[in-house]
Description:
Blueprint: H1 2-25, E1 29-32, E2 37-40, E3 45-47, E4 50-52, E5 58-62, E6 65-66, E7 79-82, E8 91-94, E9 103-109, E10 118-127, E11 132-137, E12 143-145, E13 150-159, E14 164-169, E15 172-174, E16 180-185, E17 192-200, E18 210-216, H2 218-223, E19 227-232, E20 234-236, E21 243-245, E22 253-254, E23 258-266, E24 273-278, E25 281-284, E26 287-289, E27 293-301, E28 310-316, E29 324-329, E30 332-333, E31 339-342, E32 346-347, E33 352-362, E34 367-372, E35 381-382, E36 386-387, E37 393-403, E38 411-419, E39 424-434, E40 442-444, E41 452-453, E42 457-465, E43 472-477, E44 480-482, E45 487-490, E46 493-501, E47 510-516, E48 524-529, E49 532-533, E50 539-544, E51 548-549, E52 553-560, E53 568-573, E54 576-578, E55 582-587, E56 593-602, E57 611-617, E58 624-629, E59 632-638, E60 646-650, E61 655-658, E62 661-664, E63 669-674, E64 677-680, E65 684-687, E66 696-704, E67 707-723, E68 728-733, E69 738-747, E70 751-756, E71 759-760, E72 765-767, E73 771-776, E74 785-792, E75 797-812, E76 820-822, E77 829-838, E78 842-846, ...
Amino acid sequence: xxxxxxxxxxxxxxxxxxxxxxxxxxxxxxxxxxxxxxxxxxxxxxxxxxxxxxxxxxxxxxxxxxxxxxxxxxxxxxxxxxxxxxxxxxxxxxxxxxxxxxxxxxxxxxxxxxxxxxxxxxxxxxxxxxxxxxxxxxxxxxxxxxxxxxxxxxxxxxxxxxxxxxxxxxxxxxxxxxxxxxxxxxxxxxxxxxxxxxxxxxxxxxxxxxxxxxxxxxxxxxxxxxxxxxxxxxxxxxxxxxxxxxxxxxxxxxxxxxxxxxxxxxxxxxxxxxxxxxxxxxxxxxxxxxxxxxxxxxxxxxxxxxxxxxxxxxxxxxxxxxxxxxxxxxxxxxxxxxxxxxxxxxxxxxxxxxxxxxxxxxxxxxxxxxxxxxxxxxxxxxxxxxxxxxxxxxxxxxxxxxxxxxxxxxxxxxxxxxxxxxxxxxxxxxxxxxxxxxxxxxxxxxxxxxxxxxxxxxxxxxxxxxxxxxxxxxxxxxxxxxxxxxxxxxxxxxxxxxxxxxxxxxxxxxxxxxxxxxxxxxxxxxxxxxxxxxxxxxxxxxxxxxxxxxxxxxxxxxxxxxxxxxxxxxxxxxxxxxxxxxxxxxxxxxxxxxxxxxxxxxxxxxxxxxxxxxxxxxxxxxxxxxxxxxxxxxxxxxxxxxxxxxxxxxxxxxxxxxxxxxxxxxxxxxxxxxxxxxxxxxxxxxxxxxxxxxxxxxxxxxxxxxxxxxxxxxxxxxxxxxxxxxxxxxxxxxxxxxxxxxxxxxxxxxxxxxxxxxxxxxxxxxxxxxxxxxxxxxxxxxxxxxxxxxxxxxxxxxxxxxxxxxxxxxxxxxxxxxxxxxxxxxxxxxxxxxxxxxxxxxxxxxxxxxxxxxxxxxxxxxxxxxxxxxxxxxxxxxxxxxxxxxxxxxxxxxxxxxxxxxxxxxxxxxxxxxxxxxxxxxxxxxxxxxxxxxxxxxxxxxxxxxxxxxxxxxxxxxxxxxxxxxxxxxxxxxxxxxxxxxxxxxxxxxxxxxxxxxxxxxxxxxxxxxxxxxxxxxxxxxxxxxxxxxxxxxxxxxxxxxxxxxxxxxxxxxxxxxxxxxxxxxxxxxxxxxxxxxxxxxxxxxxxxxxxxxxxxxxxxxxxxxxxxxxxxxxxxxxxxxxxxxxxxxxxxxxxxxxxxxxxxxxxxxxxxxxxxxxxxxxxxxxxxxxxxxxxxxxxxxxxxxxxxxxxxxxxxxxxxxxxxxxxxxxxxxxxxxxxxxxxxxxxxxxxxxxxxxxxxxxxxxxxxxxxxxxxxxxxxxxxxxxxxxxxxxxxxxxxxxxxxxxxxxxxxxxxxxxxxxxxxxxxxxxxxxxxxxxxxx
Length: 1322
């Protein structure tokens, strides 16, 4: 057995030795040896390396640097060893080859035991194709003239190796002998740029030749890319000489013939411009260019200037220094343009006259024939033709000493010019007049038997028969020649008309007509004398004495200007004549009469400014007026309503009282007295920043040279409440009673209210005349707090705080935030202890083993513990102490005890310090306030887990199952406004706390809130409401008067509407049955075009017309509800508004300003919001109050009596409808505020506006026609005016017919208001 064991061991040693020998004998070698390769930049490449009998480790080197044995080659993202390493495959894959990869790589295997190291290189050549191939031009462009040398350079940039460049011409290989090549370094290392330059001398045949530069490179061959660029030559050369087509040199043309000259020039680059010239002057540039020639066709009508004219065609292009030319000469036959006869225009029997005829230029010369009364007179002779311009001729024929024989006819001379080659004849004629004297003139149109009136038009006609030539007629007034309408001929007569607008100077004036002609030296004359009635043109009024005092006599004198017959003169005042005067007459101008009339009157102060009118008339034309206004001196008089008997004003305001009086002379002195002392000597008393000491009686006195007057004004000063005692503090013991007295002054007397927080506790207080007392019985700790007293009257308000402190021992805050604290190990822990009590509280902290934590013992805790002093945190009775632990350890975790103590006792609480956790859920979530689109929430924060916490709101509408979330900002806030909510919607609300450790559960969904349906008023609206409230205290009698007037207007409108409905129903009944469609059409007919644009139609007012009728049987009872057609408004508008149609709403809403003037309903253009109580911070008590729609009227006052003369503004003027004085009342509006009305009206609750449906009209309201006055009506003229019968007024212009409208009409032309702001008529 031992021997066998020895044998086995020997056998095992022998086997091991054999294996070692075999291993030492093997060699490692390359199965696939690396080889050099080429690769295009950007491509991938694989370097092969496979090893047999590998024993060492394999790696690659680059440029002699080893890449490492890790096959992923860290740090070389584009390199990787691939293949099966167990089989000895170690290929190197290179991605996205770049120039950096160019060079030698080695595959190496390290030695192992007896196996030696092996290595093999592989060179990677990186090929880079040219980055660009461009042709660089040595010239500015490739346009070249034939025969000039041109160099073209091609550059292949940044290639490896350098690219080869070949040239092609029109696609065929082109190898010029003068090619110059160069090679330079590229923009990067190892890159080369190759340049090839060729020089050529192009000919005309090289035009449009294509020269192409082609780059050859192995990288382009591998990638199958052809890189080339081309350029085209533009070789310029001159054109051939031009030629004229279809023209013969011996050809003749007739004047007026149309001729086309065509010139064509072939060849040339660019094609030439072809122009026509005539005798060296350029004619035409309108040529056309075709493919290989240019042509100019000049079309014209031949005339005499073309005879022997040289037409030249010129062709040139950009490179010709002189144009190529060719020319032709025209031959033209043309007739004379004119034949002219010269000689006398008239002659007498027995005269001898000479006549001549001349033909103008022609080719050939014209032949002339001269005839008198159709015969050739004896002695006619023609001259030799004379050459003139354009190579033509002129010719002349003459007759001398021709005897004029006795005849009743004029001589007719004719001359004929013949041009036989053209077959044309020109003729001229001339008449020689034989002179005879005219007959005597006569005048028709006035026989002197009827009177003429000044201002009328008189037509006179003068006629003279016979004579040659017919007579020339001239009009004269006296010895002054008049402009007339000229002399016209009718048969053998001369007639002249004279139109005269008769004037005063025509009375007894003589008009004459004179006739004459060239046959006689004697002028024939006839005349007529006129009798013209004319009224007085003016009146002159005077008054004496010059200075008038009340209670004295005044003499009024009126004198008319000259009139024919004599005028009747009268004096008038206020439509009544003044009798008992004295009349005188005397001779006047133009054979007329001057009349004067004077009266005496006694005047008083009320007559100051009185207008007295003088009237003069003689019944033949208009009545003449002039007026005088009396200037009477009198003592001062206060104008009615100028100063109030009393005036109320609020303290702090300013007041201005204007005591201006009526007085003559106007130099008035004023004095104001208060309490027996002089205040000011001005007509205006200004008091600024009024105080209650200014209350009392003020006396004003006005004095001038005629006397004085006084008046008393009672000033009552109102002032806001002032609370006399503020910020009082009461400290009491439990079960005691305390009285809080709030005393204030103010006028009117103030009212009081009490508040604690948001709670109104006024009902618990006792109200007195000038104070309010709040009594708290048996006080407890819960009564500690602040109580707010408010005093308010119509002027303002004041408030004061009262603080109550109830003594009791400390009460600990046991909420989660004060029971636990959290801190990470090594961090800082903060423990808070809070208690409420009075008097002040002190704190003591203890560890779990009851060791006090005091400053003297901080060293026992390694000075990591510190306690803050007791701090009052709410300003009342809540105190807090903070224990801070630095560098928290696990031993610090646990309980700590806090003791709060004051003079009434002490209280302990346990606070636990632990690690940080997720926060506890908040508590006491409640809704503080709601608006139409938001909810204000408040909650109490729970334990924060020892970390900074934030909150998230979760909400949904009550009808929805889908939640929405809102993160609170800032994150630790406990009050948050949730916005962008729907109106009148109930929401379910919850809140969650979150920190870095997690989040708490949401609070229960028991809290709900409903948004409101209306929007809160903004600050501007609040201010307006306060103003409206302050201005609303008007007397009830005024309110009653306004209400009565409004009711009366409504009744009148209802009656008018009923009449219109009745009339329309009768029309509809007579026209047949009415259906809904026709009703709608009838309604649309009522929308007449307005003054806005005149195009209101059914579409414009569809919102009204669609609702205008609901049936045909009850139209009279139907009511139009404004809300049916009103656009939806924001809920914050507390009353409805009647809006105009959209096309009228171009103006924005009016902005009302706060003035002292009371508001009048008619002065408002839109409803207003009313004030609400701001005393509660979260609730608003809104009082709906508003104004009705606007009420504007333009009332036309009645005309003066028909027998009253016009006032002074119509002196010496004709009556005109435009001069009538019409008084209108207009409640005007402005865009910046409102105007106070004469009589203030109280603001009342606005009812819902209702109008009859069919009679809401949009458009301009027209005034009713003016009614004729009593006593015969307008336009009546008495037959014989006297001092008891004044002249009548002409009828006024009709202004249209009544119309019912929702917009006020433009009664006053001068109104500056936009139509949109003038209110609604109801």
